[in-house]
Specification:
This is Beta-hexosaminidase. The chain has helices spanning about 1-10, 20-35, 40-45, 50, 60-65, 105-110, 125-130, 150-155, 190-200; strands at about 70-75, 85-90, 120, 135-140, 160-165, 180-185. It has a six-stranded mixed sheet, covered by helices on one side. The protein folds into two domains: about 1-45; about 60-200, 3-Layer(aba) Sandwich (Rossmann fold). It is an alpha/beta fold and about 200 residues long. It is elongated and about 60 Å long.
């Protein structure tokens, strides 16, 4: 594998594909250590995680649980460099869930610790509020989508967006295929925060 790495380096290769993880890692390490053509630097510049200057502190990342967070609809991670709207459906008076009026405040408070560029909206004002945003995260239970999924599909059209369901994913088929979907099965603040961080690709 060292020989392959040397050949790639001399050829100025920017991308190597290898189906074997161990061999791919060995080639990558060789390019990083020996590359005189700066291809390793060019590759790193293409990677979003290398470009990002927004990185939640390790103690904040470690505090959030990702157990139970399941991606139901795949999506491209949101860009942490871009300001993102976060819509909380669980603060609406129309909600059918009786214990839904405290989680939004707790989530807002904990999100401030991450350093992400986030603005919060309630479900009553989200359609007008999110117009200026290219990225949107919506948080709520499947009960919250009743009579709202059409408005959400319309409001999130042409935006990068993720819906975080704190209930069972019975509503996954109601949302447009362009909207990512993460199910947490929980309204616990740390679990929801883990899903938010997953939406940005930190997990």
């Amino acid at each position: 594998m060292k020989e392959v790495g040397e050949l790639a380096s001399r050829a100025g290769a920017d991308i190597l594909e290898c189906v074997e993880i161990e061999n791919a890692t060995e080639i990558s390490m060789h390019l990083e250590m020996k590359d005189e053509q700066a291809s390793a630097r060019r590759i790193s510049e293409l990677l979003p995680e290398k470009k990002s200057t927004v990185e939640p502190p390790p103690d904040v990342l470690n505090a959030f649980s990702i157990l139970g967070n399941t991606v139901r609809k795949t999506f491209s991670p949101l860009d942490p460099e871009n300001r993102t709207a976060v819509v909380y459906l669980d603060d609406t008076r129309e909600s059918l869930v009786s214990d839904s009026f405290t989680n939004a405040a707790g989530i807002v408070s904990r999100l401030k610790e991450t350093g992400l560029k986030l603005d919060s909206f309630t479900s009553e004002d989200f359609q007008a509020g999110i117009e200026q945003y290219n990225q949107v995260i919506v948080i709520g239970r499947n009960e919250h989508l009743k009579e709202r999924y059409k408005a959400l599909n319309a409001g999130l059209k042409a935006k990068r967006s993720v819906f975080i369901s704190t209930g069972v994913p019975a509503d996954v088929g109601l949302l447009s295929d362009e909207i990512g979907y993460i199910s947490t099965y929980s309204t616990k603040i740390d679990t929801v925060l883990g899903a938010v961080l997953r939406a940005f690709g930190f997990y």
